[in-house]
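Allow me, if you will, to draw on your knowledge of protein folds for a short while. I have a record of one protein: its chain in single-letter code and its fold written as C-alpha cells. I remain grateful for any guidance, and I place the record below:
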Amino acid sequence: MNTLTAPVAAPATTTRSTRRWLALSILALAQFLVVLDASIVNIALPVLGAQLGMNTAALAWVITAYVLAFGGLLLLGGRLADRYGHRRIFLIGTAGFVASSALAGLSFTSEMLLAARALQGASAALLAPAALALLTHLFPETGDRTKALGVWGGVAGIGSAAGVLLGGVLTAALGWQSVFFVNVPIGAIVLIAIPLLITPDAAGARGKLDLPGAATITGALVAAVGALSAIEQVGFAHPLTIGLAAASVVLGVAFVRIERRTAEPLVPLAVFRNRNLTVGNIVMLLIGAAMVALFFALSVYMQSVLGYDALTTGLTQLPLAGALVIVAGVVPAVIARVGAKATLVGSLVVLAAGLVWLSFAPADAQFLVHVLGPSIVIGVGMGGAFVTTTQLSVDGVEGGESGLAGGLVNTSQQIGGALGLAVLGTIAALRTDELLASGVAAPEAITSGFSWLFLGTAVVAVVAAIATGFARKN
C-alpha cells in the first residue's frame, strides 16, 4: 500500500478547467518545447562549436549535460509534482526552462552554455511529468483521455520533425543562439495561459520528502545515462563506462532497500503491481531505444551518404512526422474498437515492418523510391505505439501518483533512447569499420552499418510487441 500522506493535487474527479481542450493545447505546447529541444540543438552544433571554440568532445557535452539532468531528475520531478502540486511544479519547470534557454542563447563561453543546458534539463524534468499528470486530471474518463493522448502523441511527432527543420533554418538565418531563444516566446505563452485555464492546486498535507531515496535514484539514473553515453565515446570496456555502470547498479540497489524501509517512499514499489503501468514502461523504454537510434541514423545517412544539407534532411522527415500525427489522431477510435493491447501489438508490428523495409535502402538511394514508403509505414507504427504505450503507462494510476507515473514513463523513454543509441549505434559503427577495413567504399560501408541498425530497431519493436502480451486485456 502507498503510505504517502494525502497529496496536494486535486483528485481526478475534480474539475481543473472549464476549457480543458484549450488547456490541453497549451500543455502540449510545453511538451513541444521539450521534444523540440532534443533535436533542434543538434543542427546548430558545428556552428556553435566554431564560435565558442569547442572541440568534438566538448560539443558532445552540450547534449549530455541536458540528458543527464533531464533523465536523472525525472522521477524526483514527478514526485515533487504529486507532493507540492502539479500546476505549481509545471509552472516552475516551464519558467526555469524559459530562463535557462535565454541563458544558453546569451552564452559567450562553453562553461556558461553547459551550465545553462544542465538547468534546461533539470527544468524539463519538472515540466514533463507534471504536464502529463495534469492531462490525466483534465481527462479522467478513459475515452477522452485516449483522445487527449492522441493530441499529445501528435505534438511529439511534430516536435521531432520541426527540430531538425527549424534547427537548419534558424541557424542559417539568425545564428546558433536562435535555437535557444525560440523557446522564450513559446514558454511565455504557456506561463501566461496555464494560470488562466487550470485551477490552482488544492491544499493538502505534506509528509517528509524521501531525500535518501531521491539522492540514490537520481544518482543511479545519472550514472546509468552517463554510462550509456560513455559507450558511444569510449566503448564498452573503458574504465569510465564500467565505473559508471557499477555505480548505477550499487545506487539502484541502495534505492530499492531505502524504498522498502521508509514510511514515505519517493517511489512506492507497490505501484509496479499495476501490470499495465509496468508493461507500459518496459515498452516505452524499447520504443525510446528504437526512436532515438532511428532518427540519429536517418539524419547521418541523409547527410553523409546521400549528400543532403540540414534543411533538406529536415524536409525528408516530414512525411514520417506527418504520418505519426495523423495516426495519433486516429488511434483513440481504434483503441475504442479493438482495445489498447491489440492496437499496441499491431502498431509495433507495422513499425518493425517499416524498419525492415528501410534497411534495404542502398547507398545511392532515391528518396521517393527507397525512403518515402518505409518512412510513412514507420510513422504509422510509431504514432500508434507511442499513444497507446503512454495510455498503458498511466492506466489505473490514482491522482496522487499521476506525477510519479509521468516521471516513470518519461524516464523509461530517456533511458531507452540512451540505451538504443549506445547499443545500436555501436553495432552500426562496428559493421561500418569492418567493411572499411576490408576495402569497401565509405558510402556503402556506412549504409550497411545503418542497415544493421534499422534491423536492430525492428528486433526491438518485435520484443516490445511480445512484452505487450503481458498487459491486462483491455
